[in-house]
Amino acid sequence: MYPFNYHRPGSLADAVKLAGADEAKIMAGGMTLLPTMKQRLAAPSDIVDLNGLGLSGITVAAGKVTIGAMTRHADVAGSAELKKAIPALAELAGMIGDPMVRHRGTIGGSVANDDPAADYPSACLALGATIVTNMREIAADDFFVGLFETALQPGEIITKIIFPVPEKANYQKFRNPASRYAIVGVFVAKFAAGVRVAVTGAGSGGVFRQTDFEVALGKDFSAKAIEGIAQSADCLNSDIHADAAYRAHLIGVMARRAVDAAK
Amino acid sequence: MASVTLNVNGKSVTRGVDARTLLVEFLREHMRLTGTHVGCDTTQCGCCTVHVNGEAMKSCTLLAVAVDGATITTIEGLAKGQDLHPMQAAFREHHGLQCGFCTPGMIMSAVDMVRRKGTDLDDKTIREELEGNICRCTGYHNIVKAIHYGAEAMGKTGTAAE
Amino acid sequence: MSGTGIGARVLRKEDFRFITGKGQFTDDVNRYGQAHAVFLRSPHAHAEILGIKLDAARAMPGVIDIFTGDDLAADKIGGLICGWMIHSKDGTPMKAGAHPALAQGKVRYVGDHVAVIIAETQAQARDAMERIVVDYKVLKPGVSMADAVKSGAPVLHEVAPDNTVYNWALGDEAATQAAFAKAAHVTKLDLVNNRLVPNPMEPRAAVGDWDSGQDAFTLYTTSQNPHVARLVLSAFIGIAPEHKLRVIAPDVGGGFGSKIFIYAEETVCVWAAKKIGRPVKWVADRTEAFLSDAHGRDHVTHAEMALDASGKILGLRVKTQANLGAYLSTFSSSVPTYLYAPLLSGQYDIPAIYVEVDGLYTNTAPVDAYRGAGRPEATFVIERMVEVAAREVKQDPAEFRRRNFVRQFPHQTPVIMCYDAGDYDAALTKALEMSDYKNIGARKAESAKKGLLRGIGFSAYIEACGIAPSAAVGSLGAGVGLWESAEVRVNPVGTVEILTGSHSHGQGHETTFAQLVSERLGISIDNVSIVHGDTDKVQMGMGTYGSRSGAVGMSAISKALDKIEAKAKKVAGFVLEASPDDIEFKDGKFSVRGTDKEIDFASVALQAYIAHKFNGQELEPGLKESAFWDPTNFTFPAGVHICELEIDPATGVTRIDRWTAVDDFGNVINPMIVEGQVHGGIAQGVGQALLEGAVYDSSGQLVTASYMDYSMPRAGDLPSYDVGMTQTACPSNPLGIKGCGEAGAIAAPPAVMNAITDAIGHEGIAMPATPLALWRAIQKTAPRAAAE
After folding, report:
1. In which domain, by residue range, is A246 found?
2. Which of B96, C179, C195, C304 could hold B143 in an S-S bridge, CB 3.0 to 4.6 Å?
3. Which chains touch B (3 or more CB pairs under 8 A)?
4. Is residue A10 part of a domain?
């Protein structure tokens, strides 16, 4: 690691001020940032640690689940209220990394980092979540811009994420056998107003919605309804573990399994 | 230099450290607790697993300053003198280790697994929950067995409730 | 003493320190005043070094010194060596290119060593490393073997203008041709044995220390064979004469072959300790381990098998290209030759075999022994071949094997080895029972109902272990003898220290060796300590690899114990006033035959040291003996592994459902430890078959340089294993031991691949059979059952 100044502000206002420094980086759980820094791939001048701000906790009310940005994956996975409201989201959290990573990593950190193979972005997008920051509220559809790129402005910090409760939902993850990130992760959510399907791990531009599936499932929420719909391999990632054609195929398989398993 | 105070294995320690000091470096280099090992650079192998405020975490991916004030348990803090923790005893009893390098992290993960999942652990659960620990020697067969019986013993001895 | 003697499931004596965090690994060693080394590594697969600018780096805070290949040359420090001479079939010696510990003029793989930066802290050394400017002239690399042998391919070493280390052959070509001429059926197969990275969980590390008062060096390092390290560092590299160089391998966190070799980093650390007058420590991070630990396997093979009309094997013809990487590592030349080809007869009576092996240089990390070393590659060839041959002639693969098994011992194969003992039928029969083979059809139907493809695969492996008879390996080109030494020191109070040249890095020698002593001397294992891994304590020894510590290392101890017993009988004779010939030793007591006079072992030990009952002319005081054991033959562990698995055709994901292993390791000292070795070996073999593979891109960058890209087997990837044993004692050593350390890794890959090809119905899949590879393979063809 390169040297840096460490800060652990006690208030959001202080955090925002510190995060404004030129080469400052915000640290939530640090599960991605620290490995990157250890390999000297990032050289922040300042680390602004959000662990002194609170910002954690899960509340369920009026058809909405609100999760504080600093809520650990383990707490999301283990929340009894969430398991009742959106079991798919709790299950997804339980599939991130490994138990030790889940004790430290946070939902806000994951969403803000927007790793193209991370799990949470698919849930945010499929559930139509609202990402709340110190400055504004951003719809998930507008939030994820590209690879590791979000709508967040410099100095903008996620404080909580609000998820509408669907009728049913499910997340299916096909893990990279080495990193255990998603090669393909498909989150399917059925609302009264329609179905949303989001795919992570596969797209060369990051998480995306599979609208052909959404339309078909909107008419008939069954695995059969999307069986014949081809996912194009264009704009999908290709690496030693999965080429684009395989990813395209897996998107269909994972989506059908998610529909079957949705509850 | 930043001042870090930790309660490590029941003793309070304060050290002035560079902000980039990782918790594992704090333990190994500043406290000479060399039972916590480093086996990778990517937060995957789990050799460095310790308990931070009672939860298993990877000490290679935590800044010491960021856990200032925390209570840390390392492998050295698990036994009470010569009395092994039931999970340690189970690893020995069931030959759950060979070279011993991943073992401290395995045992710390296993104890945490019992805290989260209870004392009646089936093979499938144990294997899933070992996602974050890599062993190259044992083929995991005897680790899985050791954790199963170690969990059971923790239940019987009341260690699980601690 | 049956409780802790031979055959008992004794819990391990070494465990307490490991489960309490008190193991002492090399990274746990810290010397007063130590500095930290980091290595600047080549970012290019192939480049000339036109210049290195160090000034800016030298000016960085904390920097103590920086060295390059020029500094090693100026000190006349020799290059790293390859200790096994292989001759090509035309009689020319292998083409060994120079291998300086720090590059001199050229780099030949990504990760090659360019400079060492030594600073007060590791972070400072890294900071300084980034300020070094190297002027490279980048050359075209030959990354794959196909690239390396193309005409006009870039040349790695001038001594080998065609990038060929050797064109080696073994067997009778004419006899083999004749066998094929009369064949009723010929089975042909192209096989790739994928390149692996050993990945012991403890990365390599070294602490070099120099005592200015005595001009003597100490190297703490992660070695499987500290004496061999000392020998090479002293006699060939020229660090210091052996009596001025102490090598200590403390607790070592797994090796699997990768810690046999003498590498650049260890060499440089011990040399640099004198240069800077301070201890120098280096610890590899995992990416460095991926880049610079010797890799394993990496063969491309075409094989043909001739059968008669009844399915009897008449002959085998094998042509292999073996990737040796950019330099010849310590034992690399022997791995695809004498550790490979002599095992191609497998468990079968094959009248004629001919093998050609081309060893090639490529711009990749050196390739050397990895768990099994040559024998997994041979087993993969023969066991895939017999499975496919059986399928082609429509015979049951188990019965096809049985029909061709060697049944008479000793059995001289056409490829050097003379199998001394075995019962291959017994292992197969037991494995078929344990695996419930007779109901496989029903299980396949059950899987099919769920939309899954179930397959079963066999592997009837054999290996040559107990490496090795010195004269035999000497005649084949080995630069060293492969005996082992032991010293037994009985203390005056009757406790025993065993000093052994074997080295334990997970194998549990502190327990099994003590069990032998307990059995022989009738004392508790608690009164025995095993001393190993320190050249100042232990006389010359050869270390641990090739499943040799039981068969060779313990045989040396056994021989020394014979001497102890003989001497103790003399002492007892004086004490009991009887002729040594009348003294019997049993259950820890010496007694005079036909009388009730007796004395226990501890009392004899005391008498040996106080020497009150005999004078120095009659008998030397003391009770300490040493022995060297040089085996008379290799040992031949063998067995049958059966893998049963299910593949989800929708995703290509494989789940191993059952694993049956039946192994014949000869006599077993500690079944618990032996089973553990089998488990671990299987996991590495399954890793090779399903998950692992080192991938270089066309520019020579290692794509799989961390656990983010290289798939290490996790608990969830593996099944529990059903392990059984058969036993035929090994006739070539006093303990009847054959060795067990490599069996699983040798047996497993063909078992998995035979099961996978059974499930998918064709042979068009290579290791690792990842979900991607399997999904593609499944797209290609319908299952064989459906096609037929």
Report:
1. 168-261
2. B96
3. A, C
4. no
